């Protein structure tokens, strides 16, 4: 039997590459490209007689279980590629471990990544930029420099999983200095025109305006008026148009943030006001914006099967559903559509929109990550294969679980998950994913935990900022402050972040959800339409005397007194229909939620009986009102 070695391999940068995004499609593309390029290296391992240890995406080249890796290995088989929807999900992590034959050259993996990247870059260049390069200043030189020097690739042959992190500390990768004006998405890199805006604004604007005027593959509006991109960001933006020639067909219109916020509202309007929706769409359809794809959401698929006459309504650009965006001329007035006509149509739509009720302007970004996964591998070295299999099982389950809650998966590689979804679905999705993770490891008799972060954010909040905040929320609040196996939540309105609450999963499931569900039943009754809002408002005012900056020690007053105050407010708001037992139960739950909870190092839930905070209650209020 020939000897084998263990290859530890990674490709980066990760966070900066994914986070350089203004559109939701940028997030998907960044994640997919990282996954695809990592798959190029994995394919070399498999073709060279190796096998993957982590992730468990393939035992050898003839037994590949991951859909994206299958698409990479079977490139050229158009029948397979065009029929494989799951291959559009980024399921391969940016780092992997593999068994390779003695004498295997890992530099071949690195070369495969560079070849795959250059193939993509060259196709984007030829199709969308080469014809305009002559009006830029050294545009081709900038392109080549950035394309050839972007990726940080590390590998080491070692049985020790931690060896790769030590190898990366050598810091052999030194990106070249980037001069000139910087990219509006990837701020460390020069934008492609090569002109300096302070002296050559007209030349710079002419360069980008010429590119925007191209109408190849329907890509006319893929560059916003104020966007000036570097090569890397440009490739991310236009990759979906050439993806089918590289690996597989992918959606060209990933749902916008306004559309994500509107999904459940669209379903209600289509079902309850079908004709009004059809009339609205007829009026809005000429506006020159993009089209959304309702078929990405099971809820909308079902509703539209029963109400096909409202399909045009469900395909409208998400900006068509909000008064503020309809009234913003910068979103609509394009040369292809007279500004005055656009203003007239949008004014009529605002009036029609008032009759369709108001959608929530908030959607959710969900981020999840396994806890102390490296330590888990070290502790159970004898079960590395089983652990890898459990992780692969979880990763493959993620897209369907997210889709079942009308969300869209950005990536599901290893123990990492990133997804977008409507506000109403995020909490249930997080709980489902956590259960799936636990079940996968329970099947191999290993206790593993996963933490999550949800940001409920207004659709006009910059995506890059939301993503960075989600990363901090997950790492600093859910994992560090709350002790892992936890969920952290932030609400980010147009004026900024208004609250953050975190708790162990058990508290979320056994205390927060029952309170939310119980209060929703009360507040949903038609004779109590204003009850939720007025009750929380009064509670906030009454408790302001007890809570300084949102937190106060209970040593200064008795818990029973606070409970009695909450009961009194509940009964006052409920009026003649007040139920004493109901009031006591609901307010007791509320009081419990005001306490701070965390997991200690052994995983046991702890609480501070003397400290209270109102963020959990205001989060419940936000979710009940859907931010409206």
Topology summary:
Elements: E1 4-12, H1 15-19, H2 24-47, E2 51-54, E3 58-60, E4 63-64, H3 67-73, H4 78-83, E5 95-101, H5 107-128, H6 139-148, E6 152-157, H7 163-168, H8 197-212, H9 231-246, H10 257-272, H11 274-284, H12 298-306, H13 311-314, H14 323-326, H15 339-354, E7 362-370, H16 373-379, H17 384-404, E8 408-413, E9 416-422, H18 426-442, E10 450-458, H19 463-481, E11 486-493, E12 496-504, H20 505-523, H21 531-543, E13 551-553, H22 559-574, H23 580-593, E14 595-599, E15 605-613, H24 615-625
Parallel strand pairs: 10-11
Antiparallel strand pairs: 1-5, 1-6, 2-5, 3-4, 7-9, 7-10, 8-9, 11-12, 13-15, 14-15
Molecular structure report:
The chain is of the alpha+beta class. Helices cover 49% and strands 15% of the residues. It is built from 24 helices and 15 strands. The strands form 4 sheets. It has a 6-stranded mixed beta sheet with strand order 8-9-7-10-11-12, sandwiched between helices. Strands 2-5-1-6 form a 4-stranded antiparallel beta sheet. The protein starts with a strand and ends with a helix. About 2% of the residues have low confidence.
